[in-house]
Design a protein that fits this description.
The complex is a heterodimer of chains A (about 300) and B (about 650). With about 300 residues, chain A is mainly α. Chain A is built from eleven helices and four strands; from the N terminus they run ααααβββααααβααα. Chain A has a single domain, classed as ABC transporter involved in vitamin B12 uptake, BtuC. Helix content of chain A is about 70%, strand content about 5%. Chain A has a two-stranded antiparallel ribbon with strand order 1-4. In chain A, strands 2-3 form a two-stranded antiparallel sheet. The radius of gyration of chain A is 19 Å and the shape is globular. The N and C termini of chain A lie far apart (about 60 Å). Chain B is an alpha/beta fold and about 650 residues long. Chain B has four domains: about 1-35, no CATH class; about 35-85 and about 125-360, ABC transporter involved in vitamin B12 uptake, BtuC, CATH 1.10.3470; about 400-485 and about 575-660, 3-Layer(aba) Sandwich (Rossmann fold), CATH 3.40.50; about 495-575, no CATH class. In chain B, the strands form four sheets. Chain B has a six-stranded mixed β-sheet, with helices on both faces. In chain B, strands 6-5-8-9 form a four-stranded antiparallel β-sheet, with helices on one face. In chain B, helix 6 runs antiparallel to helix 12 and helix 10 packs across helix 20 (about 500-505). Classes of the chains: A mainly alpha (about 300), B alpha/beta (about 650).
Chain lengths: ~300, ~650
């Protein structure tokens, strides 16, 4: 294959991957924006989402070996799959917030973050003990259609994922910018105490933020399953840390930044894998993470936070 | 029994340790004989690795408050360091450079017919222990450097990044590490011709010795100038800087010491296991060590050691035994599922539960570091406040720097802008030794900014600050403290979880010298220095009469507001300042306490300390000051004797507003 074709192909693959990272990074960045917490449990909510998807599909009679669907059945099943999985992961996020994180929300220092690490370990191991350590096949719902444009292959999967991701992101953006809830979220992010005094129910805003973020992680988890065709208890950690890097790169707390960062990390993974070597992918991504945190902690689009003396 | 317990509690801590240490060591030494089961001895030897790791992480997280989520990296570096030096992994070509090492018996020449000669490594375990510790310390500083400017959470993420990178490098750099298969055939330690081999017994005693050394180092560090500096940074980094602690130096030192102890653990573990693979050092290992530290209590040495032993015991004994019982139960009730359960695989689930439950219900750990202090007696509580009778501090400076041609402090054209706001504009101020100058002005007039500029917490945009004729503007806070400028804060910034005495000893940081080695070995020089520091603290507390002395060992978060103010002033005096900056010391004090404070400030001047005072209580200012400086919107609008300032038109205008044109 021609060098340029390879490049273009990897850009297409990278953007599709990037959409998944972006969805995951969004939940991450929203929670950080509201309560300044690095939420490790987000990664395992994402991982749990793939298993929720498996259960939902098997309840609808789609087994890992089933043939791919087309037409209305496909659309119907996809809608139900996304709706139920996102609702389930959203609720999981709410549960985590209510049970584990609210008691430590006002504790200064690293206690809340350590709690989220604990939650992540609990979820990972519950899944591990329930489904076992081996990878699970994820049903290949989407037909294997592909088109070649100018030597670059685009698959139907990528088109669907792109479309769903963009629908979700536009809805989120609308919600944050145009609705009362969005205004309450932005106010809470600026100053939770002031927001409380203006009559905003901050606890409710935090819960809803966890719901939305975790629901987006659920969507991201379906992307993972549909794209790679497998899942396992261990997928959350690596994918999650890449998504976290996306959020940091874009500027933690910034919603457009999370999308931009996600796309960038997707591209880094596909291009780096092609031109440097898959085995070094994580070293590259973590180096980006460290460099950004050290030299530009506000990321590409992050707001300049005032420092208190 | 009860009487025995009370007697034990009555003993001072040093006596207790001298009794406890031999008892614990004896139990440790006798354990293999008592159990007479090689499996238990082997498990205990592994447990000592956990103890070392937990002690190392406790230095970083518990003492210095730096959450390290990639601590397993140092375990890995220590392990691979010895593994590579004691196996046939690297086979460099022979050259004469290797001859000295060959004489020392650390390498040998390997000749295969038809090929160039190569070097076979078989470095001895004992020097490698030290080498591993040093290499890890260097990596600790290397990984720590990028985190110096970061806040808690971000710092943790960067350490996590390094923690991920190290095993990936170990997996992919096959020439050095033999990749995913890992190093094999690592030589076991030898001592005087005795090969440790594969029996668990020698490793048990070696592990016991290393763990004992780890505990000893931890205790010595905690109770030293170094440990106090770490805890000050943990409690309040900014205040620590203002008390003379160089946070860059001490944070890196914490990373280095923590890494070195972890490296010892790695070296020991690999020598025992004789193999090292990248999977042994992944994120779950870092979390496991964190679980031990959280469970025992951040900063609590005894707690962390017990927690490490418990986790090891849980892993190698409790869960396995429990599994047997559950299987037996399953056979009894005929449940196939119960017979299949493997509780050991749920270890990480238990770790997760421990972290969450501890964070929600018992953040200080099961056996926390803060010791309970006896409450004050009724007499102590009811005692009438008495001022101390101190008339002179033993280290007091000459009242006026005689013969010096410079004023003590000369501020010239000092300017600072925050965005469009001018917090200090062209401020000139001269303070002579022995003076007491007050700075007043409405809220937001730039008084605290002036203090921040003088003490180096913020850098001026322009202008100079000279102390004894030498420029200090732009120097970091800890250097300015060392030069003799100390301060208190408007909203008290004490080290809340430390006792009154410990707070004061941090204040003495810049007047002491002990480094890490001094802290650990504690030679007579350091011993004398520590004694001097404590007596100096008692001397300073004496100034406050019976206010603080009975509360010497109380953590400061429990003190009354006025006593916290007093502690903060005492802490500042401990730095032996020539110039003391007090930022609203009387704020929140009642009239009686304010009077007491005025006496104190006058006494300070009598001790030869020059004072600059920010205060809103004008009657107090008028009474104690030699001279008053008035600021408004960052500009000095008046300066002079109290009577003069009181009648100044511009001052009245700034405070009360412009009078209507008459």
């Amino acid at each position: 294959m021609h060098m340029l074709d390879v490049l273009c192909q990897q850009v297409v693959n990278g953007l599709a991957l990037g959409m998944m990272y972006a969805l995951l990074a969004l939940g991450f960045t929203m929670v950080y924006g509201i309560i300044e917490l690095i939420n490790f449990s987000h990664f395992s909510v994402f991982m749990t989402g793939t298993f929720v998807g498996l259960v939902v599909l098997s309840l609808m009679g789609v087994a890992p070996g089933s043939a791919s669907l087309t037409g209305l059945p496909l659309v119907g099943i996809l809608i139900v799959l996304f709706a139920v999985t996102m609702a389930a992961t959203g609720l999981l996020g709410v549960l985590i917030e209510r049970i584990c994180l609210r008691p430590v929300r006002h504790v200064s220092g690293t206690a809340p973050m350590i709690t989220t690490i604990g939650v992540a370990f609990i979820l990972i191991n519950v899944v591990l003990l329930t489904w076992g350590p081996q990878a699970q096949r994820f049903p290949q719902l989407l037909p294997n259609w592909r088109w070649t444009i100018e030597g670059v292959e685009i698959t139907f999967k990528q088109v669907v994922l792109f479309a769903v991701a963009i629908i979700l992101m536009v809805s989120l953006s609308h919600l944050v910018k145009r609705t009362t809830l969005g205004k309450a979220m932005r106010a809470t992010a600026q100053d939770a105490d002031a927001a409380r005094m203006m009559g905003i129910d901050v606890d409710r805003v935090v819960v809803l933020t966890f719901f939305l973020g975790s629901a987006l992680a659920g969507a991201g988890s379906l992307f993972f399953g549909l794209y790679y065709g497998f899942t396992g208890y261990y997928i959350g950690y690596t994918t999650g840390l890449r998504a976290f890097t996306s959020a940091v790169l874009g500027g933690i707390g910034s919603i457009p930044g999370a999308v931009l960062g996600g796309l960038f990390i997707g591209l880094t993974q596909s291009l780096g894998g092609q031109f440097i070597g898959v085995k070094w992918t994580d070293v590259i991504i973590f180096s980006i993470l460290i460099f950004v945190l050290v030299f530009r902690p506000n990321g590409l689009l992050g707001a300049q936070t005032p420092r208190r003396a | 029994m009860r009487a025995l317990r009370d007697r034990w509690r009555g003993l001072e801590i040093g006596r207790r340790r001298r009794i406890l240490a031999p008892v614990l060591l004896a139990i440790g030494l006798l354990f293999p004989i008592i159990t007479s089961n090689a499996g238990n001895v082997d498990a205990a030897a592994n447990a000592f690795t956990y103890v070392l790791l937990a002690l190392g992480l406790n230095i970083v997280v518990g003492f210095a408050g730096l959450l390290d989520l990639g601590y397993a990296a140092f375990f890995a570096i220590g392990a691979y360091g010895y593994g590579i030096a004691a196996s046939g992994q690297l086979k460099p070509e022979w050259s004469s450079l290797w001859v000295p090492l060959e004489w020392a018996g650390q390498v040998s020449r390997l000749a295969v017919p038809g090929q160039p000669e190569t070097v076979q490594f078989h470095f001895s375990f004992w020097p490698m222990l030290a080498v591993s510790a040093i290499v890890c310390a260097i990596f600790g500083m290397l990984f720590g450097t990028p985190t110096l400017r970061l806040r808690g959470d971000y710092l943790a993420i960067v350490t996590l990044g390094f923690g991920e990178i190290v095993p990936v490098v170990a997996r992919n750099w096959e020439g050095l590490t033999n990749g995913a298969q890992g190093l094999g055939g690592i030589r076991t330690p030898r001592l005087f011709g005795f090969d440790f081999g594969f029996s668990p017994y020698p490793y048990y005693f070696l592990g016991l010795a290393l763990a004992a050394v780890g505990v000893w180092i931890s205790i010595r560090l905690q109770e030293s100038r170094v440990g106090r500096a770490w805890m000050a940074i943990r409690e309040d980094e900014l205040a620590a800087g203002a008390m003379g602690v160089n946070h860059v130096h001490y944070k890196l030192l914490a990373f280095a010491m923590g890494a070195a102890v972890g490296g010892l653990g790695g070296t020991f573990y690999v020598a025992k296991l004789t193999t090292a693979t990248p999977d042994m050092f992944t994120f779950p290992v870092s979390v496991m060590v964190l679980v031990m530290v959280v469970l025992g209590g951040l900063g609590s040495i005894r707690g962390v050691v017990v927690a490490a032993l418990f986790v090891a015991f849980l892993q190698s004994v409790i869960l396995q035994d429990l599994t047997q019982y559950v299987h037996a139960l399953g056979r009894a009730v005929g449940s196939a599922w119960l017979q299949r359960v493997e509780l050991v695989t749920s270890l990480e689930l238990i770790f997760g539960l421990i972290l969450v439950l501890m964070m929600i219900f018992r953040r200080e750990g099961l056996w926390p570091a803060v010791r309970r202090v006896s409450a004050l007696t009724h007499e102590q509580q009811a005692a009438a406040p008495a001022r101390g009778s101190v008339v002179k501090l033993s280290w007091a400076h000459a009242p006026a720097s005689e013969g010096s041609t410079h004023p003590l402090l000369r501020v010239e054209r000092l300017t600072k802008q925050f965005g469009g706001l001018s917090a200090a504009a062209d401020i000139n101020l001269t303070v002579h030794a022995g003076e007491l100058v007050s700075v007043i002005g409405p809220n937001g007039s730039g008084k605290t900014t002036l203090f921040n500029l003088i003490t180096g917490l913020i850098r001026p945009d322009a202008g100079s600050v000279r102390l004894d004729g030498r420029e200090i503007a732009g120097s970091p806070p800890h250097e300015i403290v060392a030069r003799g400028v100390a301060r208190t804060f408007q909203n008290i910034r004490l080290f809340n979880n430390l006792s009154v005495l410990e707070n004061l000893l941090v204040g003495e940081h810049v007047r002491l010298e002990a480094g890490v080695l001094g802290a650990i070995v504690r030679p007579p020089r350091v011993r004398a220095e520590e004694q001097r520091a404590v007596s100096s603290a008692l001397e300073v507390l004496e100034i406050f009469g019976n206010r603080l002395l009975p509360r010497l060992d109380h953590p400061v978060y429990g003190l009354s507001y006025a006593n916290r103010r007093r502690t903060e002033i005492a802490r500042a005096i401990m730095t032996r300042p020539k110039l003391l900056l007090l930022d609203e010391p009387a704020a929140g004090m009642n009239p009686a306490e304010t009077l007491e404070l005025m006496d104190l400030i006058k006494a300070l001047r009598a001790f030869g300390i020059t004072v600059i005072l920010i205060e809103h209580k004008l009657d107090m200012v008028m009474d104690v000051s030699d001279r008053i400086v008035v600021l408004d919107h960052g500009v000095k609008i008046a300066e002079g004797a109290p009577a003069h300032v009181r009648s100044d038109e511009r001052v009245i205008e700034a405070y009360l507003g412009r009078r209507r044109a008459a």
